[in-house]
Lipoprotein (Thermoactinomyces daqus), 328 residues
Amino acid sequence: MFRFRFILVLVLGLLLLSAACSRDALPLRHARLAVIYTNAAKKESALMLLDAKGEAIGEIPIKAMGIFQIEKSDKNGLLLPERFGRSLIILSPEGKLRTEQTKEFPIFVKQRDGVTVSAFNTTLHSNTLEIVQNNQRKQLQLPGFLRTATWDDTYVYVFSSLIEAKRAVLYVVDRQRGKVAQTVPLAIDLADDLKIVGHDLLITSTDEQKKMAIYDLEKKRIRYIELPFAKPQYILPVANEIWITHKQQAVLTVLDPDADQVKRTLAVSQPIFQAKQDAQHLYILSQSDSAETAGVLGVYDKKHLHQIKRISLPRKGEMRIQDFALLP
């Protein structure tokens, strides 16, 4: 009798343990959207997973302070740099978390095609750029605050705000050598996005100017395009056009595919804090300060720019929504 009870208790314990594990690890394939909540004053963050209908299907608590970015990894997982710490939180496709120690204060991490580019706010007047490729790690110290970066087969392009000098530059870094090949002065500042479109590198600027920069990758020179609105922020190549969002405004500017002229402007029904796209839809995230809602995620049909879905994201204590990702 005692032996029977012992076996019964053991089986029940294993079943409970299995259930707990299944709750803790929610595979990302079940989700369509991931939204990061974070606290900038203490180690408190959470990743909310939503299905294609916009309904919450799980939440993963993260002990980290200041996560402002979600980056999709090459392995179909997610990367979340802790801006006010020294760690990179990695979420596997199976929904399992692990933490990787980094240099202090990671500003951003970007990964694609076997290359990882990161920046760290290591000193007051200069930051560390790190390039990892082919199992090799290269680091270089660059003046200014490194806001964002992108790359092609030869170079990494890094936007830097030289805060004391009150100006900005574009660093063109040789990927193989890990050395600066060119420093390009810019007449704009506060870029949140760099994107290569054709033979051009487009550079946004969230300062008060109504223009953005375009770096010709073949001729190695800068030109500027005037825009109808200030604070261009994110670049979205759409079919034979380029859509530009404007920081915290409910408008977009549409450029021709060569980024030579403004074709028209578009309007949406909410201010744009973050924007992502898939083949058919534009997803726009707005922050909210209401008692019940931390943000609104609007889904728009790209053909007519009609809002087809509005997802209210609940408030979670003192945490604020900072970014989201579209999952496969």
